[in-house]
C-alpha cells in the first residue's frame, strides 16, 4: 500500500506528491515525516482535517504548492490554515477551489 511506497520514496528526493481522491486514512501524514524537500503537495478530493495537515507543513519548509480543492474545507479551517501558513514565505500557489468557504 501507500505506506510501503512512501518508505521507499523517503530514500529518494521527493519533490511533488499528488494523492487525489485516495480516501486517506487516519495517520496518513506520518508518512511524510522527514520528506523535507517536498515542494508540491496536492490532496484534492480528500476530506482533510486541517489540524492533521499542520504537522506536514512544518515538516515541509520548501513547500511552494498546496492543492486542497474539493477537500471539504470550511471558513474555520481556512482561518487555522492561514495562521499556519504565515511563516511559509516560499508558498506560491494555494488552491482551495470547490470547498465550503464563504
Any overview of this molecule?
- With 102 residues, the chain is of the alpha/beta class.
- Helices cover 28% and strands 12% of the residues.
- The chain contains 3 helices and 4 strands; from the N terminus they run H-E-E-H-E-H-E.
- The protein has helices spanning 2-9, 50-59, 75-85, and strands at residues 16-18, 40-42, 65-67, 93-95.
- The protein has a 4-stranded parallel beta sheet, with no helix packed on it.
- Helix 2 (50-59) packs parallel to helix 3 (75-85).
- The radius of gyration is 13 Å and the shape is globular.
Task: From the structure above, extract its key features.
102 residues; globular
The largest beta-sheet arranges its strands as 1-2-3-4
Taking all Cα atoms into account, the compactness measure Rg is: 13 Å
Number of helices: 3
Helix/strand/pairing category: alpha/beta
Order of helices and strands: HEEHEHE
Instruction: Give helix % range.
Output: 25-40%
Roughly what is the average pLDDT, rounded to an integer? 82
Global outline: globular
For the sheet with most strands, the description reads: 4 strands, parallel
Give unreliable regions as ranges.
none
β-strand number:
4
Binned strand content: 5-15%
What is the straight-line distance between the termini? Answer: 37 Å
